Structure to design on (795 residues):
């Protein structure tokens, strides 16, 4: 690698806005064909490095240090000058990097045409050719719809294809696969690695969780509050970390199969789903194999594992009463579809919901109001008692030090997620429904959230229904799992057995995508 | 939250503050009208006919020798009192009802929305004239309030319906929060966030309706002249004596401008 020419050399980069220092004395030499992963939480300085490389220093920012692209001259970073390398930017899918309404293909073709200085039709063909190179990528026609309506993994393939179509010399990847399922992220990472081998570009990859280190290898620079705390080859860091902060980040990686929290519960059935049709076809009697039946006993935990669009979210919405589907759903031996609205609400108050959707909590409400609401709505408690329950719950999730009069809108995604858990705790639920609990969180937040939910399960004795595309999450929180694929359950059973001997391809793919550290690290 | 945010930028917040302060000053002037006016309402021949503004008569006099300063003050007080009542009526009958209707079962709410939407398609002034024709003169405040109510209804309905389809509303329903608890929650925040600006917007809208009705001869009944009727009365003289129309018109413009400022310069025609 040392004989390869340096694609980028940054020396003593400092970037500050007023008194706030975004990055401090950061140096980096990146060669053609080399991968550098910038790993750290939000605000660690990754964003500043990417912006400097993309020449996007904002007004009001003070920049120090020097930069050199390829064989060009070394120049002060503060002096703006066109980057001589063909540079491609690879964004994540959340928030949506394209305009939501127009066709994604039209937008991406326009970007390619502008970069290659060619007609838009030629840009479209370049996009088609790039997509054809990736295994598991959608067709150009699939992407030819409103960008907001596309499956996130499909959109990520489109963005990757657009970046690769310009045959870049430098790729700036800004958390490109962070909000995707492990299986999709793995497919896309393989495609990115394959393209890097083919085109020989230098890759700077910003990540908030350590999974890309496993998938891409290369060199890792761990950043914290604008400073480099540790740096080294991926294999070395996976083998052992020197800095405590790096260890905390790597703790978020799936660990080798942990012992089940407790033996599968043998209590009474709490949730019974009978003959539920996830994808009803108009004017057709559903076939037996398309009907879903299962039961969840008190205190048990079941994972619904599958890719986006596999049908698990439909089941989740039906269980939560947000969508009606043919079939029966019994909660505590009562058919929810037969009850009056008032009776349904009485039962639903024993259901708690923790979801990755950031708009799940009313942004206008305060922390205290959010946690108090289930108590005020369902129980007639004194103000002191309500405050007592609320404070205990906030303490358990680590939000006790926050000002209770802050509104939800001012909280970070991690704090909002923890607030949902606090609200679930005060509701003393019989059933906790958890939907993609770790999606979009930084590595330390993922670890905290996983531990918090596991602890909640142990202490609450509630049954858990966990919807996830990450098999490691299912392993950490559940005893049993159902694997969904194309609207049907393809495999079900104890988690440990599914992880050890998956029978179906869909299960195997999910298990491999979230394989524990020991297995995948060996591959790296 | 994707409901149209009532958030004002700091600059618009300053303007809104200025608007409310100005309206406050007008409210005080209206309350003290009897003390501030030089002569009782409708007193004629206080001075020479059509005397221009002078030290003795700062706003001049009209055709009947009435002091224009006192008359404008009384007219302002009539307009503001009627517009205030009408604005509250529009917000309660329209806004509150629209908000509650959005929480009815979907088909019922939508049917009402369409019915009121059809009413809202009729220009508010025509609707007010129609209501006056069906009732009697003297109810112009009621007519203006009811005429502005459909627009307030539609706006409130759309905002509330958008709120009920948001993720947090689904989340609340899934965890057993009742529709009435959700309605209470939305109403409380809606009241806190938008009530004042809605009232201010309604005030501007109904002040225009009321003055136009009076200008056309369907509004205020003498001797209680409002600003619209004063401008109408100046039709015969304002070519020779501009002050007879200019000061009532300026007073009306001031009320509408301050109300719009108080609404954060939200130019929407809907209250």
């Amino acid at each position: 690698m040392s004989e390869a020419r340096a694609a980028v050399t940054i020396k003593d980069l400092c970037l500050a806005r007023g008194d706030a220092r975004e990055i401090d004395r950061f140096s980096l030499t990146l060669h053609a064909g080399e991968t550098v992963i910038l790993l750290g939480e939000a605000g660690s300085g990754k964003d500043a490095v990417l912006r400097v490389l993309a020449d996007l220093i904002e007004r009001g920012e003070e920049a120090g240090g020097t930069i050199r692209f390829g064989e060009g001259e070394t120049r002060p970073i503060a002096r703006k000058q066109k980057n001589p390398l063909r540079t491609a930017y690879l964004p994540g899918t959340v928030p949506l990097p394209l305009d939501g309404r127009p066709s994604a293909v039209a937008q991406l073709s326009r970007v390619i045409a502008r970069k290659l200085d060619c007609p838009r039709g030629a840009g479209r063909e370049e996009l088609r050719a790039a997509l054809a190179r990736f295994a598991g990528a959608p067709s150009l026609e699939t992407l030819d719809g409103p960008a907001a309506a596309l499956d996130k993994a499909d959109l990520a393939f489109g963005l990757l294809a657009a970046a690769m179509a310009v045959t870049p010399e430098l790729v700036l990847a800004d958390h490109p696969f962070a909000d995707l399922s492990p299986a999709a992220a793995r497919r896309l990472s393989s495609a990115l690695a394959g393209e890097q081998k083919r085109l020989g570009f230098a890759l700077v990859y910003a990540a908030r969780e350590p999974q890309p280190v496993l998938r891409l290898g290369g060199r890792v620079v761990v950043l914290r509050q604008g400073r480099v705390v540790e740096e080294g080859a991926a294999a070395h860091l996976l083998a052992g970390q020197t800095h405590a902060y790096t260890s905390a980040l790597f703790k978020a990686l799936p660990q080798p199969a942990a012992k089940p929290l407790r033996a599968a519960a043998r209590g009474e059935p709490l949730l019974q789903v009978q003959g539920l049709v996830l994808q009803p076809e108009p004017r057709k009697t559903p076939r037996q194999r398309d009907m879903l039946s299962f039961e969840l006993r008190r205190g048990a935990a079941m994972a619904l594992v599958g890719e986006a669009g596999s049908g698990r979210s439909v089941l989740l919405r039906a269980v939560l009463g947000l969508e009606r589907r043919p079939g029966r759903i019994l909660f505590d031996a009562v058919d929810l579809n037969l009850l009056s609205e008032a009776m349904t609400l009485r039962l639903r108050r024993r259901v708690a919901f923790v979801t990755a959707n950031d708009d799940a909590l009313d942004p206008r409400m305060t922390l205290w109001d959010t946690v108090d609401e289930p108590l005020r709505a369902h129980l007639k408690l004194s103000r002191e008692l309500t405050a007592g329950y609320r404070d205990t719950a906030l303490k358990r999730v680590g939000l006790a030090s926050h000002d209770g009069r802050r509104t939800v809108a001012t909280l970070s995604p991690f704090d909002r997620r923890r607030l949902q858990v606090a609200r679930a705790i005060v509701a003393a639920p019989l059933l906790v429904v958890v939907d993609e609990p770790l999606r979009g969180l930084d590595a330390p937040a993922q670890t905290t959230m996983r531990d918090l939910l596991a602890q909640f399960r142990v202490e609450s004795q509630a049954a858990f229904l966990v919807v996830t595309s990450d098999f490691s999450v299912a392993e950490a929180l559940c005893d049993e799992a159902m694997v969904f694929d194309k609207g049907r359950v393809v495999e079900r059973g104890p988690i440990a057995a599914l992880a050890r001997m998956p029978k179906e391809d869909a299960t195997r793919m999910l298990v491999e995508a979230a394989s524990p550290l020991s297995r995948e690290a060996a591959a790296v | 939250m994707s409901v149209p945010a009532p958030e004002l930028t700091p600059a618009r917040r300053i303007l809104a503050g200025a608007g409310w302060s100005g309206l406050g000053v007008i409210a005080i002037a209206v309350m003290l009208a009897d003390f501030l006016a030089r002569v009782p309402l409708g007193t004629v021949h206080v001075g020479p006919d059509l005397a221009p503004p002078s030290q003795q008569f700062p706003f001049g006099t009209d055709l009947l020798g009435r002091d224009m300063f006192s008359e404008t003050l009384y007219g302002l007080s009539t307009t503001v009192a009627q517009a205030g009542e009408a604005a509250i009526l529009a917000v309660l009958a329209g806004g509150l009802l629209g908000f509650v209707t959005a929480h009815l079962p979907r088909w019922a709410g939508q049917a009402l929305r369409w019915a009121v939407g059809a009413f809202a398609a009729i220009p508010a002034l025509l609707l007010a004239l129609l209501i006056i024709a069906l009732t009697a003169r003297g109810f112009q405040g009621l007519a203006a309030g009811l005429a502005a109510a459909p627009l307030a209804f539609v706006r409130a309905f759309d905002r509330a319906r958008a709120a009920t389809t948001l993720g947090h509303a689904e989340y609340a329903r899934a965890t057993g929060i009742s529709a009435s608890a959700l309605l209470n929650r939305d109403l409380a925040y809606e009241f806190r966030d938008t009530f004042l600006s809605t009232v201010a917007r309604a005030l501007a809208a109904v002040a225009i309706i009321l003055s136009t009705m009076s200008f056309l001869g369907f509004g205020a009944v003498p001797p209680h002249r409002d600003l619209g009727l004063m401008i109408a009365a100046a039709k015969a003289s304002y070519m020779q004596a501009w002050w007879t129309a200019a000061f009532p018109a300026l007073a009306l413009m001031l009320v509408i401008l301050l109300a719009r400022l108080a609404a954060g310069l939200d130019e929407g025609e809907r209250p």
Chain B touches chain A at residues 1-2, 166-168, 170-179, 181, 185, 189, 193 (CB under 8 Å). The CA atoms of residues 20 and 183 of chain B lie 29 Å apart. The two ends of chain B are 22 Å apart (CA to CA). Chain B has one domain: 12-40+60-262.
